[in-house]
Amino acid sequence: MTEQEHVSNNPDDLLENYPENLIIDRPDLKSMPFLLGEQLLTLIFWGFWFYLWLPLISILAWAFGFHILYSHIVALGGFEGFLKQLHVFFGGIFFASGILALWSLYNLKRYGAYNRRTEVFTTDHEALEKFFSLSSDQLRTMHQAKRLTVSFSEDGSITGVLVTTIPAHRDNKG
Predict the structure, then answer these.
(1) Is residue 11 in some structural domain?
(2) How far apart are CA 142 and CA 164, in angstroms?
């Protein structure tokens, strides 16, 4: 099949090979232990994310009159106490990194063999002009645009186009 035969002349056929929704969301196909495991991991990592923000939250609380930081700096021994607890911080970082690496390895083993990429279908200028009700001059201007903002209506027709064209040459002087 040649490329010319592959391109449809009917504007309604341009998007026929694309699914309605490109995001697959089917939680009903997952088992209950798998769903609970996902939820548990999500909760653990959100908790870890919150834990990382605790120093900033403590400083802001101190600024607003809450003296939480006092117990961490003075009561626990200040810098010496921090040095004594440093191995705990590094252990937490390595543990979280290890969990993330294992999760990535699991995803690679589980989904790495699947190639969900599909062919990107090409089209010609005439089909684009017909589908979007554009003139050839409008389409050429859009192709040459440096920045292009397109507004669509509910039925998919173009309602407005804001075009910034590329200058013919750039003067690097001054």
Answers:
(1) no
(2) 9
Structure confidence at residue 58 as a pLDDT band (50, 70, 90)? confident
Helix (H) or strand (E) holding 160: strand 158-165
Q: How many CB atoms lie within 10 A of CB 13?
A: 14
Range of the domain at 90: 27-111
Task: Note the pTM of the prediction, 2 decimals.
Answer: 0.30
Q: Determine which helix (DSSP H) or strand (DSSP E) holds 145, and give its type and residue range.
A: strand 145-152
Could you list the beta-strand ranges (E) of 18-157. Answer: 145-152
Same domain for 146 and 98 = no
For residues 62 and 56, give the distance between their C-alpha atoms in angstroms, rounded to a whole number. 10
Give the number of domains in the chain.
2
State whether residue 1 is helix, strand or coil.
coil
Q: What is the mean pLDDT of residues 101-111?
A: 89
